[in-house]
Structure formats: C-alpha cells, structure tokens
Specification:
Layout (H helix, E strand, L loop, with lengths): L1 E4 L5 H7 L8 H18 L1 H12 L10 H10 L2 H20 L5 E6 L2 E9 L2 E5 L8 H14 L3 E6 L9 H9 L4 E4 L2 H10 L9 E3 L4 H12 L5 E2 L7 E6 L5 H12 L6 E6 L4 H13 L5 H8 L3 E4 L3 H11 L3 E5 L15 E4 L5 H6 L25 E9 L1 H17 L3 H11 L4
Parallel strand pairs: 1-11, 4-5, 4-7, 5-6, 7-8, 9-10, 9-12, 10-11, 12-13
Antiparallel strand pairs: 2-3, 3-14
Helix pairs in contact: 2-3, 2-8, 2-9, 3-8, 4-7, 5-6, 5-7, 6-7, 8-9, 10-11, 10-12, 15-16
Length: 432
C-alpha cells in the first residue's frame, strides 16, 4: 500500500501510480490462455476434462448439471438466501426494463419509412466465477437481462467445487432466471468451449461475464478469432476508486476498499482525497478490519498495490478518476450529487455515505458486470441491449424513391460507385 502526494509527482510517476497490477503478468497470461484455447479446439471434451483436473483438481464425468442436481441445490440453499436473491432479481428486472431500447419507425421523407427492430441474440454463453468465492449474484446480473432480451438459448458455465458439483447458490440463481443449461466448467477452458463448442458444450454467439485475468484474456482472444464468439466487455479483476473529503468516515472508506480487495490478489483499490488527516485514519481502519475478515490474506495481497493519493483539490481527484476510469467509483462526499457532472469515465457510481459499492454488487438494481482495466473510457456495463441486436429497416414507395433517389445517385457517383447509382436509376426509370 502506497501513500502518494499527487502534486509532488511527475507525469511518469503518476502514470505508474495508476497502473493496474494485472498488466505485470499479462504476457505470461496471454501465452497460457492461447495454449488452453488451442487444446480445447483440438481435443474438445477430452481437453476440458484434463484442464479441469489440472486447474480445479476434480474429475468431472458429465459437465451438464442434471435436474437432480438442480433440485438438490435448491433444497440446500437457506430460505433467507433464496428470498434475498428473489428480491434482488425483482430490482434488477425493474432497472433493466426501465432502460430497455424500443423499436421505432419514422418517415424520413414522403414515401420513405425507416425503423429499427430488436432481436435477442440466438445463443449466449454466461460465465459465473466460483473459484475463490462463488458468485450467484453474477448469475442474476447476467440471467435477468438475457431473459428480458428474449435470447433463444442461454448457456451458463461455472467452475466445479472440490466435490465436482456446481455451487448450489449459483444453480439456484440460474433457475430463478429461467436458465436450464448449466455446465460445471471454469476458467479459460470454459470460455474456449462456449466460443467454439465441443461435444458437450454448445458454441455460443456471444459471451458474457467477469472473471480473473485468464478469463478476461480468453474472452479477448476468442473475440479476435474469425470463428470465435463476440464478447460483452473486458470484465477482469475487480477495482474501486473512492473520492473522499474531510467529512468521510474512515470506517466506511476502509470497508469499501476491503470489499473489493477481498475479491482477489489482483484486485486494485484506490483512495483519492483532499483531506490529509483522513489517510492515516483509513490505514488504521484497514488494519483493524482485516483482523476479522475471513479473506484477510487475499485482501492483504491486494492492498500491496493499493494507492492512497493526496490531492490539492477535489477537481484534481476527479481528473485522476477519469484518467483511471474505475470499474466502481464511490463519491464519499458531503454533497456528492453536484459532482456527478465531473464524472466522465466509470463503470458505476455510488453517491454519498449510504451507498456502499456492495449494494450494487447484489441488490440495488444496477448491473455489476462492468468494464475494468480502464475500459470504462469507452465501454458501458452490461444491459439488455448487450443481449440484443438492433436491426434497421426501410420501406420505400415509388414516390419515396423519386424523392431521395437523386440524392443517392449523386453520392454514389461522388464515390465512384456507378453500380450503386444504377441500382437506383434503373428503379427510377419509367416502365417501358
């Protein structure tokens, strides 16, 4: 964990301070993932079983979860957990439905009607992490918009546990979203299987979901291959940036930093503040709260590359945040709302003292599958639109062709494309 004074740093030092930790091992990760993808493409299910033995330490005979396993999973999940997942699902539905795009049709010229229709992607593949910590919330975050988009088929992969079964809460969350095809398979090999298909795993048109650096690299690689699958966004190791003023609670700030640090050793947490007295209190709270965290060792490793940055003004804090483009941005400010207009790049924003990032992870209604590693500069989090294609439609009468045809002919000839011009002119000619 480093404490830095921004005004004392040159441009190079500032760039190093905002560097993600995962990039240090990116080259090795990419090479390993390439090898895994090649194995899966060459040997299919055999490679999947070998890789599962190697990485998960379990033998999986049949990858697809059976009805009996679904039933056993549901019976084993505590009623209060099921109720919480159902409540979270309802809020997710409400938020996603409110933001859904709509089909439309307008007249752009007399006799020319143009519109848009929306179609759910035919088959989508969802990845739900369950390595160091199962994430049933991710099954909800992906399953809800997939259902609202009316995708024809939804496939879900999640790593097997030590007993070879899928996590019971993940299976229960999947069923809450109407997902019936779940496979006990994780890591880069799951991404490769969903991208290209094997005897057991169907090939998907688009892949969704967060994961570690291996999963993220696999998604990016298959998206670049000619016969691979599209992907939602680069959703890798978790990260949070907290902008805090002098009135922020050190207890709350430390808790928010730790809530992301416990995700994994490659997570990154940053505090940016204009209050010099806040930082030592936050450090003290981090140490105190680590004492009773079950995942303290993981969090400590993440804190090794944490950054506590002192700035001269909140304006400077927002400039840092926009340059970093965090997955999660917490504004621990006395009056956070007026500052929202300063936010240019972030996956999701949490305003004020009563909006911990953990609510967005589970049940506020927004989606927690968000761009990481700076991708928030140009990418948005998962929504219903992510699971749909938007198809433009035009209907033109003879009168409409007469109205806009000359425009098309002029532009086609300006580009030197005479066949384009003739396709219009031949239709405009009077019948002989």
């Amino acid at each position: 964990m480093k404490t830095l004074r921004w005004s004392d740093m040159d441009a190079n030092a500032r760039a190093q301070a905002l560097r993600r930790p995962a990039r240090a091992v990116q080259e090795a990760v990419q090479a390993s993932v390439t090898s895994i993808i090649e194995q899966v493409r060459a040997d299919g299910d055999g490679a999947l079983r070998a890789l599962t033995r190697r990485f998960d330490g379990v033998e999986v005979g049949v990858f697809e979860v059976s009805e009996a396993e679904f039933a056993e999973a549901r019976a084993s999940v505590a009623p209060e957990v099921c109720a919480a997942m159902a409540a979270a699902r309802e809020r997710l539905i409400a938020w996603h439905r409110a933001g859904m795009a709509e089909p439309f049709e307008i007249e752009t010229a007399p006799g020319v009607r143009c519109g848009r229709i929306l179609r759910g992607i035919t088959r989508v593949g969802l990845y739900v992490p369950a390595g160091s910590a199962p994430l049933p919330s991710t099954a909800l975050m992906l399953g809800v918009p997939a259902a609202l988009a009316e995708c024809a088929e939804v496939v879900l992969c999640t790593p097997p546990q030590a007993d070879g079964r899928a996590d019971a809460t993940v299976l229960t969350a999947a069923r809450l979203c109407g997902i019936t095809r779940v496979f006990k398979l994780g890591g880069a090999q799951a991404v490769a299987a969903m991208a290209f298909g094997t005897a057991s795993i169907p090939a998907c048109d688009k892949l969704f979901g967060p994961g570690n650096s291996f999963v993220t690299a696999a998604k990016q690689q298959v998206a670049m291959m000619a016969d691979g699958a599209a992907i939602d966004l680069p959703a890798g190791p978790s990260e949070v940036l907290v902008i805090a003023d002098a009135g922020a609670s050190p207890v709350h700030v430390a808790a928010d930093l730790l809530s992301q640090a416990e995700h994994g050793a490659d997570s990154q947490v940053l505090l940016v503040t204009d209050a010099p007295t806040l930082i030592p209190f936050v450090i003290e709270q981090l140490e105190q709260q680590l004492q009773w965290l079950p995942r303290a060792e993981t969090a400590r490793r993440a804190l090794d590359h944490a950054r506590l940055i002192l700035v001269d003004s909140l304006e400077a804090a927002f400039a840092i945040s926009n340059a970093y483009a965090p997955e999660h941005l917490i504004l621990a400010l006395r009056e956070p709302s007026p500052w929202l207009e300063k936010v240019r790049s972030a996956g999701s924003v949490f305003l004020g003292d009563y909006a911990p990032e953990a609510l967005g992870d589970y049940c506020s209604g927004t989606n927690h599958v968000l761009p990481t590693n700076g991708a928030a500069r140009a990418c948005s989090g998962v929504s219903v639109a992510s699971f749909q294609t938007s198809i433009s439609v035009q209907a033109v009468t003879r009168e409409g062709l007469a109205a806009i045809g000359p425009c098309a002919v002029t532009l086609a000839r300006a580009e030197g494309l005479e066949a384009h011009a003739q396709a219009v002119l031949l239709r405009m000619a009077k019948p002989s």
